Amino acid sequence: MTELLIADGVAVTFGVTAALSGASVRVAEGEAVALIGPSGAGKSTLLLCLAGLLRPDEGIVRYDGIDLTSAGPDELARIRLREFGFVFQGGDLMPELSLAENVELPLRLAGIPRRDAQERAERLLVHLGVGEARTRRPDEVSGGQAQRAAVARAVVHEPAVVFADEPTGALDTDNARGVMQVLLAATRDVGASLVMVTHDRSLASLTDRVVEVHDGRVHDVVGDAATEQLGRMPAW
Ligand SMILES: Nc1ncnc2c1ncn2[C@@H]1O[C@H](COP(=O)(O)OP(=O)(O)O)[C@@H](O)[C@H]1O
Ligand SMILES: [Mg+2]
Questions:
Q1: Span from the CA of 46 to the centroid of ligand 2 (angstroms)
Q2: Which of 60, 61, 184, 206 is least crowded, fewest Cβ atoms below 10 Å from its Cβ?
Q3: Cα 166 to ligand 1 centre (Å)
Q4: Which parts of the chain register pLDDT below 50?
Q5: Quick check: is 235 in a domain?
Q6: Residue 63: what pLDDT?
Q7: Structural domain count, the chain
C-alpha cells in the first residue's frame, strides 16, 4: 500500500505544555485511521499537524511526498483547499448559507461553475440522506443532519484525505453511529484516506486501524480493526 501521509518524530510545545513529543504515524492511501486517547493526549494537535494547519516545532510531516513543515503558504493553502477535506465537532457550517450552499462552497472555490456545483451538492446531500433538508440553514436542522451536510462538504470535491476531529462528539449514540457510517462510506466512495479523532472506542473500531495517542506520543497501534464490514454505497 502506498503511504500517503506521514508524521515522523513530531513535537509541539505550547508554552510549557508539551502537546506532542516524538509522535509518528503513517496513513496509507485509502486507509481509515482513528486516533484515540484521553482528553489532552494530543490528538487534535497531531491532526492539525498532519493537515498542515499547525507547523510542528520538530519532526516532519509529509503528504504525497511534499514536506508540509517547509511548504510555503500558497502551496499549503492549495493542498488544504483541493486535496484535503475537514469535518469538526459541529457548528462549522456557514450559518447564513443553506446546507446545499455550504456543500457547493468547496466546488465554487475550485472554480466549478455554479450550476454544476449546485447539481453535485444536491445529489450528494440526497445520497447522504439529507436531501429534503438541503434548502434549510444549519440552525434549522438537527445536529445529525448538519453533520451529514458537513461530511458532504468535506468530500464533495473528492479530496485525497479527510480529517475529522470528534465529528460525532456533539451527537447522541444513535446519531453518532449514523454519521460515522456516512463519513466512512462517503470517504471510501471518493477513495480518500480518513484521519479521525475520537475518544469512542466503538466508533474507532469501525475504521481500518486504531492508533493510540497518550501524553503526546503515539504509543500503540491497536491493530487492524476492520470489525464491521460497511456496505459500499453506490457512487453518486
Ligand atoms: N492552542 C493551544 N494553546 C495552549 N495549549 C494547548 C493548545 N492546544 C492544545 N493545548 C494543550 O496541548 C495538550 C494537547 O491538546 P489536544 O491536542 O487538544 O488534546 P486532545 O485533542 O487529545 O484532547 C493539552 O494539554 C492542551 O491543553
Ligand atoms: Mg481534541
A1: 9
A2: 60
A3: 14
A4: 223-236
A5: no
A6: 98
A7: 1
Neighbours of 144 (CB within 10 A): 21
- Specify the pLDDT at position 222: 54
Mutate to test the pocket of ligand 1, among 12, 13, 14, 50 (most ligand atoms within 8 A of CB): 14
Asked if the structure places residue 233 within a domain, the reply is no
Instruction: Say if 20 falls within a structural domain.
Output: yes
Task: Return the residue whose CA atom lies nearest to atom 13 of ligand 1.
Answer: 19
In the prediction, which pLDDT does 156 show?
97
Which residue from 159, 25, 30 is spatially nearest to 86, judged by alpha carbons? 159
Here the CATH number for the domain that contains residue 174 is 3.40.50.300
- 99 belongs to a structural domain: yes
Instruction: Name every residue whose Cβ is closer than 8 Å to that of residue 133 and which is 6 or more positions away in sequence.
Output: 99, 125, 140, 141, 145, 149
Q: CA-CA distances (angstroms) from residue 35 to 78, 112, 156, 224?
A: 25, 33, 24, 13
In eight-state DSSP terms, residue 233 is P
Q: Which residue has the cell 450552499?
A: 101
Structural domain containing residue 7: 3-223
Nearest protein CA to atom 12 of ligand 1, as residue? 19
